[in-house]
Amino acid sequence: MKRRLPVWWLLMIPGLLAGCVSRNNMSALDPQGPVGKTQLNLVYLSTGIMTFVVIVVAVIFIYVVIRYRERPGDEKKGIPEQVSGSKKLEILWTAIPVLLLIILAVPTISTTFTLNRKPAPEESIRVNVTGYQYWWGFEYPDHKVSTANEVHIPAGKKVEFVMKSHDVVHAFWVPSLGGKQDLNPGRQDRIVLQADKPGVYEGKCAELCGSSHALMNFRVIAHKPADFQRWIASQKSPDSAPKTAEAREGKRLFRQNCIGCHAVRKGGFNVEGRSAPELTAFSNRTRIAGILPNNKKNLKDWLRNPQGFKPGNRMPAFDHLSEKQLDALSIYLENLK
Ligand code: CUA
């Protein structure tokens, strides 16, 4: 019995393909900077060559299957003539793949070297990136500023990301800007990226690094150059003074419970030896731990049960704090500007 594919199955296709639509500037197929564009051109070139090979092979295959299939009366003709070896064909099907590989290799290798060229352009700004299980530390050595999980850059300018890992291998990937670049323990690597326009570009860890690898997200926030300078200035003189009694209690709780791992800077920067994301100007972060929208409710949920949101991260649960204490702590953090 012949079974037909039900029509409703076809109706599922748009739903399945919806996953391919670019959301939050997170598609390598919709590049927003020169590196992403260069890399996409390579993708097009290799996909084009592969498609060409598939089509040629399929056409020859179908032709041969039809042309040389057994037909009635063939038995009487006996076994067809047996051929062995053909110099012409051997040369042809060696030369064509070699040629295709050269067409693929030349631009790939030259692009790889161009993207890795040292030193970085004179006018580029430098950001040191450190990968931790499962968060990102960012430092601006020229500005003496540091932050975590959200990296701010000026649009239209080259940014040199110099990276290392604190623990295992991670990979820095901002699909719409470019990448990926591995972060290796004991080694320094770099990638120079640029966002053409101001905007928020989602980044991901692209190397399996543990149970919360899939949640090791970060954001690249590109500003107009003047806004970027303003951001740098605000980070240089953050406002960490609690304004209300509740916030003061929050600060006391922070000192008691959090300061061993998290830093809140008053100015200057010091990231060495830090084992958890810096929380300076925390209220300006768009997300908590790179995954939850930054608001008081989510912050309290996170403090109560960080493992529930990001399994395997190193933050203990603060469920020994009372509801009132959690309120105070989150009010203090949500007022850090
Ligand atoms: Cu870090 Cu995957």
Automatic annotation (TrEMBL):
Q: What class of enzyme is it?
A: translocase
Q: Which cofactor does it need?
A: Cu cation
**CDD domains recorded:** CuRO_CcO_Caa3_II
Q: Which InterPro entries does the record cross-reference, listed alphabetically?
A: CcO_II, CcO_II-like_C, Copper_CuA, Cupredoxin, CuRO_CcO_Caa3_II, Cyt_c-like_dom, Cyt_c-like_dom_sf, Cyt_c_oxidase_su2
Q: Which domain of life is it from?
A: Bacteria
Q: Where is the Cytochrome c domain?
A: 245-337
Q: Its topology with respect to the membrane? A: Multi-pass membrane protein
Alphabetical keyword list: Copper, Electron transport, Heme, Iron, Membrane, Metal-binding, Respiratory chain, Translocase, Transmembrane, Transmembrane helix, Transport
- Any note on cofactor binding? Binds a copper A center.
Domain Cytochrome oxidase subunit II copper A binding, residue spans: 122-234
Record localization: Cell membrane; Membrane
Catalytic activity, EC? 7.1.1.9
Q: Which residues cross the membrane?
A: 42-68, 89-109
Reaction catalysis annotation:
4 Fe(II)-[cytochrome c] + O2 + 8 H(+)(in) = 4 Fe(III)-[cytochrome c] + 2 H2O + 4 H(+)(out)
UniProt domain Cytochrome oxidase subunit II transmembrane region profile: residue ranges = 20-119
Its function, per the record, reads: Subunits I and II form the functional core of the enzyme complex. Electrons originating in cytochrome c are transferred via heme a and Cu(A) to the binuclear center formed by heme a3 and Cu(B).
What family name appears in the similarity comment?
Belongs to the cytochrome c oxidase subunit 2 family.
User: What name does the UniProt record give this protein?
Assistant: Cytochrome c oxidase subunit 2
Q: Which species expresses this protein natively?
A: Kroppenstedtia sanguinis
